[in-house]
Amino acid sequence: KPSLAIIRVGNRPDDVYYENSIVKNCESMGIWPQRFILEQNISMDDFIEVLNIVNAEPRIHGIMIFRPLPRQLDEEILQHIIDPAKDIDCMNPLNQAKVFAGDMSGLLPCTPAAVMETLKYYQIGLKGTHVVVVGRSMVVGKPLSMMLLKEDSTVTICHSKTQNLPEVCRNADILVAAIGKAKFIDDKYISDKSIVIDVGINDTGDGKICGDVDFQAVVNKVQAITPVPGGIGSITTTLLLKNVVQAIHLQKSRHYRNDFNHKDLH
């Protein structure tokens, strides 16, 4: 039976929400979810020990680590440790490099892939289209920008140091919000031509979630907008489970360098 290891550090409400969604979908699709819930103050050594266990366990086919991780855990080191053939959210540099080189045949990062699937489903043309991506993380912003470039979009990546952010966003044909700040994007950031993709999952403090976009402030002023909940997050979860199945095939093949062991070499 396909199996997914979910590694969560601490109890961030948005992580818990996403995890519950993944588990529910796993169960409906015949994938066995295994949760590893770790203390917020876990040491680097202890985290690596858990990661090595799930890497080595042949009955685990996919590994999902919730990011960002607490400060004491060095993602730069951990991304090299996760088995690239089990790395279903494209954390390992081997998998990232394929995406950045324009090769979309491997394990794609789930949220950027969900954005691309949404645009494709609604037949929104990308060639020559100006896409503004707000957020430059390796989880969403950077890989998504590479995937958009592959489709011949003109991409602007914005971040906390960007000058005149509302003006830059207003000039977008497609605006992608991926900053992790609740309702940050309001009507100052959009125009009547905007297509808005909201990637955010934020806790509102009352048991509900909202996106990075103030939905009510913009919904009647834009061409189209994805809702939160029920938008990109739902597709992300589906693609995550698709990656688990793809990972099984990768582990059976010999395409990944850490499939090689000493008996292969002698």
Chart the SSEs and their pairings.
Blueprint (H helix, E strand, L loop, with lengths): L2 E7 L3 H16 L3 E7 L5 H13 L5 E4 L9 H7 L11 H8 L9 H12 L8 E5 L6 H10 L3 E5 L6 H6 L3 E4 L17 E4 L3 E2 L5 E2 L4 H4 L5 E2 L6 H21 L9 H4 L1
Parallel strand pairs: 1-2, 1-3, 4-5, 4-6, 6-7, 7-10
Antiparallel strand pairs: 8-9
Helix pairs in contact: 1-9, 5-6, 5-9
| The CATH homology group name of the largest domain | Leucine Dehydrogenase, chain A, domain 1
The helix content, as a percent range, equals 25-40%
Shape: globular
Strand order of the largest sheet: 5-4-6-7-10
Radius of gyration: 19 Å
How much strand content do the residues show? 15-25%
Number of extended strands: 10
Q: Mean pLDDT, nearest integer? A: 94
CATH architecture of the largest domain: 3-Layer(aba) Sandwich
In DSSP terms (H or I, runs of 4 or more residues), the helix count works out at 10
Described by strand count, sense and barrel closure, the largest sheet is:
5 strands, parallel
Number of domains: 2
In terms of per-residue confidence, which ranges show pLDDT below 50 for 5 or more consecutive residues? 259-266
CATH fold-level label of the largest domain = Rossmann fold
**CATH domain class name of the largest domain:** Alpha Beta
Structural class: alpha/beta
- Could you tell me how far the N terminus lies from the C terminus, measured between alpha carbons in angstroms? 32 Å
The helix/strand series, from N terminus to C terminus, equals EHEHEHHHEHEHEEEEHEHH
